[in-house]
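This week, think about what follows.
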Amino acid sequence: PWNYRCPGCSRLTCSLPCVQAHKRRTACSGKRPRTVPVALAQFDGNQLLSDYNLLEETSQVRESAHRLLDGFGCGFEGRHGAQLLPWLSFLGKAAERRGVRLAVQT
């Protein structure tokens, strides 16, 4: 009898050895894709916790990026107010003097 459902691909398995064999055979991670929408009927406390953890991790990565940019001496004021690194600004000005339009995405 099927006792377990793989969160990654919804395959039914009966025991831990079957789960391990499934992962080896199909290269399935066994983890639910975190950005895939979940039907409201299937949304439970575990889904809520998973979504919350994803938001927390995203916030941590954002804060880490801010600290990294601050360490390079350039502030980060959002997409439209971001400042370029000094050497990148120098490169843009040199290109401008030569009549080259250089587009830098920050």
User: Anything to note?
Assistant: The mean pLDDT is 80.
